Amino acid sequence: MKLLKLIYNPVSGNKNFSKALDYCIDKLQSLGYLVNLYRTERNQKLTKAFFDIEKLDYDAIITAGGDGTINKVINQIQRYDLDIPLGIIPTGTANDLAAHLNIPYNLDGALDIIAKDNLKAIDLGKITGDEENFFVNVCAGGMFANVAHQTDRKFKNTFGKLAYYLNGLAEVSTFEAVSLKITTSKTVIEEEVLLFLIFNGSSAGGFNNLGKSAEIDDGLLDLVAIKNVSFNKLPALLLKILQGNHIKDENIIHCKSNYMKLEMLDNNIDNFKIDVDGEVGPLLPIEVSICFNELKIFVP
Hints:
Blueprint: E1 2-8, H1 21-30, E2 33-39, E3 60-65, H2 67-79, E4 86-90, H3 96-100, H4 107-116, E5 119-128, E6 132-135, E7 138-142, H5 147-150, H6 153-159, H7 162-172, E8 178-184, E9 188-199, E10 221-227, H8 234-243, E11 252-257, E12 259-264, E13 273-276, E14 279-283, E15 286-298
Parallel strand pairs: 1-2, 1-3, 3-4
Antiparallel strand pairs: 5-6, 5-15, 7-9, 7-13, 8-9, 8-12, 9-10, 10-11, 12-15, 13-14
C-alpha cells in the first residue's frame, strides 16, 4: 500500500470535518493508501506532524483545513526539502488556494481529485526578513491585512467570509497610510499606500478578484497596492476591487516581478507586521522571491 499522512485542523471552518473523518479514511484506504493521522493544535507550526517524515517514505500528504493550515504544511515541506505531492480538502473559511485551483469544497469532490492522481506543479512565494517563510496565496500589509488573524474564530465559523467584511470595515476610518519603498527587478516605487498585496495565487480572504491577473505557475509575483486616497474615494475604489475592475485605476499600483523588496520610509511606525496566507508574518523590511514550480498539488 501507499503511505499517506493526513493532517487535519479540527476547528477549521464549520468544524464538521472531524465528524467525517472515518468516512474520509475509508475512502483513502479504498484508494490504496495507508493513512497516518495528525490532528493540528492551535498556534502550532506542525513540527510534530513531520517528526517521522525522514524515516518513512510517504507517497502523499493531505491537508484538511484552510489556507493557514496549508501554509504551515508547505513550510514544513520546504524545511525538509520534500518532493511529496500535496492534496487539499478545503474545510476553512476562505480556501483561496482551493478556489484558484478549482478544487471542490465538498469532501467527495476533493477526494475524487486525489483519486484521479493528476498533479500540477505550482510556484511558491519565499519571504526573507526577520524570519524565512513560504506562501501559496498572498503576503500583505496595511489596511485589512491583519483581518484574518484578528477575527475571532467563533465569529468566523458563524459568519464565514462575512466576518472578514465586518471586521475589515471597522478599520477603514482609523487606518493611516504607510510610506513604502518597493524595489522590483525592473523598477523602484516610493509611495504612501493603504494596503499592499503580493500575490502568488489570485485571491485573499475569499476575495477572488483581488489578484485577477495573477497565475500560480508563471514564475512571477503580482503586486497590487492601494495608494493613499481620500476617505470619500475609498468606497468606490473598494467596489471596483470587489468587481475585479481595479488593476488600471489611477489609485492602484500593479506590477509583476520574480523579486520584490519592501521597506518602510516612515520610521515612526513600529512593529509593522505583514500577513502571510492569513497568518501573522514577519516585520518589514522583507524580500520576496518566487520558487518556480516548487510544489506538486493534486488538481482537477
